[in-house]
Task: inverse folding
């Protein structure tokens, strides 16, 4: 059994919770600046997290594979402050300048 500790600065940590004392087994840096929003999604058995950052990027990370599977650098012109998964592949995001964008991630992943 595993659990994740997502540090809202730039990384997530994966721990082995099956032992009496929890053991850190993986650390992954996700963004250059702080993560402002995150959302969990599952698709075809994959456990995914979307993250939106002050660095203006959006990332899709596969927790099972422990890797970032998609990065949209400069997804916005200003830091992202709002983020919503509409379904497993459709997301809406907004930035500090008031711009709202809708992205269909399956187009990037297929």
Result:
């Amino acid at each position: 059994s595993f659990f994740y500790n997502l540090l809202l600065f730039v990384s997530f940590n994966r721990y082995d919770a099956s032992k009496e004392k929890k053991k850190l087994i993986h650390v992954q840096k996700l963004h250059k600046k702080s993560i402002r929003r995150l959302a969990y999604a599952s698709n075809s058995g994959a456990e995914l997290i979307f993250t939106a950052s002050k660095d203006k990027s959006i990332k899709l990370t596969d927790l099972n594979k422990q890797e970032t599977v998609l990065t949209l650098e400069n997804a916005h012109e200003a830091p992202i402050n709002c983020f919503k998964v509409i379904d497993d592949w459709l997301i809406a995001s907004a930035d500090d300048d008031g711009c709202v964008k809708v992205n269909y991630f399956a187009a990037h992943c297929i």
The longest helix spans residues 106-109. Residues 1-10 have pLDDT under 50 and may be disordered. Helices lie at 106-109.
